[in-house]
Amino acid sequence: MQITNHMDCRMNQRGINKQMVDLALEHGVFDGDKIVLRRKDCDEIAAELRQTLKLLERAKCKGGVTVVVAGDCQITTYNTGSFARPASKK
After folding, report:
1. Which of 90, 32, 82 minimizes the C-alpha distance to 62?
2. Predicted TM-score (pTM) of this structure
3. What are 59-82's pLDDT values in tens digits?
4. How far apart are CA 85 and CA 90, in angstroms?
């Protein structure tokens, strides 16, 4: 989307950067001709991100997580750091 000169000036005056605008466009709620990212929306998104961060830390502690797939079927999963190839196949 194109940013008008007016919006660019208002962003500078109000301390709103491009990343904040993108966040509002991605997660905000349509209200007529505007998109609103409310404090409540920010709290919900932050809670989701905290949960994702916890999951990432758990996966990191396992050395990563590997999922084996075939087409659209998930076959198995294991800790990435735990896989050891037999010496004969190296």
Report:
1. 82
2. 0.70
3. 999 999 999 999 999 999 999 977
4. 7
User: Structural domain tally of the chain?
Assistant: 1
Give pLDDT tens digits for 28-57: 999 999 999 999 999 999 999 999 999 999
**How remote is the C-alpha of 53 from its chain's centroid?**
10
What are the tokens at 13?
A: 């005056």
Alpha-carbon span 34 to 7, nearest angstrom: 13
Tell me the C-alpha distance between 62 and 59, whole Å: 5
In eight-state DSSP terms, residue 75 is: E
Whether residue 88 lies inside any domain: the answer is: no
Expressed as residue numbers, the domain containing 62 is 5-81
Determine, yes or no, domain membership for 90: no
